[in-house]
Specification:
Layout (H helix, E strand, L loop, with lengths): L3 H15 L2 E10 L4 E5 L9 E2 L19 E5 L9 E6 L14 E4 L5 E5 L2 E5 L17 E2 L2 E2 L4 E2 L12 E2 L1
Antiparallel strand pairs: 1-2, 1-4, 2-3, 4-5, 6-7, 7-8, 9-10, 11-12
InterPro entries: Gp5/Vgr_OB, GpV-like_apex, GpV/Gp45, Vgr_OB-fold_dom_sf
Organism: Paracoccus homiensis
Protein name: Phage baseplate assembly protein V
């Protein structure tokens, strides 16, 4: 027959096992400390826990998560104080930005997007794009429909005179 102490120990073990892996949503974000608090249903909210970043060594990636984003909280021994949050679970509130195999797409709320599809890279940056360093292009550059390689200039005069603007 099981004793009261045995039942308590078994209950504690069951509780810890149930808390090893929990799903929740982000309740608060502290970007400066790279920590979040996770709402685990009802009134239950975790303490501040780190989130798993893509990289955190010589190569580092930072992308602060959003309040309401779904996460998986992994808690060694069922202790959420030692937990770590796995981000990036698609849910009703956060759907994938692409749905085709072979497409990689990153979207930001400001309208910035990066897409890799069929060997081509597309970048949308409504706020502008700044490149620091030299740029080497092997191929044509087209700006507003005008080819850098194939455009023609009118008004050419030999010597030091300037040409007319490119003809489209």
């Amino acid at each position: 027959m099981m004793q009261v102490g045995d039942r308590r120990a078994l209950g504690e073990t069951d509780r810890r096992i149930a808390r090893l892996i929990q799903f929740g949503t982000i309740a608060e974000v502290d970007p400066a400390q790279a920590r979040i608090r996770v709402s685990l249903g009802g009134e239950a909210v975790s303490g501040w826990v780190p989130w798993v970043a893509g990289r955190a060594g010589d190569v580092r990636v930072f992308s602060a998560p959003s309040v309401g984003e779904q996460v998986m909280l992994l808690s060694p021994s069922g202790n959420s104080g030692q937990g770590v949050a796995l981000l990036g679970l698609y849910s009703g509130a956060g759907q994938p930005p692409a749905s085709e195999a072979g497409v990689t797409r990153v979207e930001l709320p400001e309208g910035v997007s990066l897409e890799i599809r069929d060997g081509a890279v597309s970048l949308a940056a409504p706020g502008g794009l700044r490149i620091t360093g030299d740029v080497t292009v092997e191929g044509d550059v087209v700006a507003d429909g005008v080819s850098l390689k194939n455009h023609r200039h009118g008004g050419i005069a030999r010597g030091g005179a300037l040409t007319d603007p490119p003809a489209s």
